[in-house]
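Worked Example 4.2. Consider the chain below.
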Amino acid sequence: MLGLETPPEGGPQPLEPDSERPDARVRLAILVGSLATTAFIGYLVFTIGAWGFGFRRFSQHEGRLRRLLPQQPTLERVVRGLNDEGSRLVAAPETAEALERVVAERGGRRSPEIRAKAARYPHTRVFLAGDMVYFVFFDEARVMRDFTCVSD
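Applying the procedure from the previous section yields the following structure tokens:
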């Protein structure tokens, strides 16, 4: 025989030759790679979750106003209804300058859209609904005609 004896069952097993064991650098690289992959997957999960939550939240607010629009409610009814639901009126600009201040303060990246809609309708009311801002637009007869939701 070649000097390779089979150890008795239950006895000590022969050690693997050193050439088959990864050295410390390889083990460290595997560990670092595993940690980086885990961190990246965690980042993706939290990013996608935050996006999903934000999308759902925005959709709910927009849906609330979208369902209200076909009813053609009056300005007074909208103010009273939103107030009763906990969305407080924060601005009722009557001049272009007052509207511009509110748009600059609360419009964010939707400011151009808000300005365009406000140019079409003479009355604008601004509501704070949790962390969302509603810009609601009314015509000459004070009937709701459009809206824009802005994430605060």
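The chain has a mean pLDDT of 86. The chain has one domain: 40-151. Compare this with Example 4.1 before moving on.
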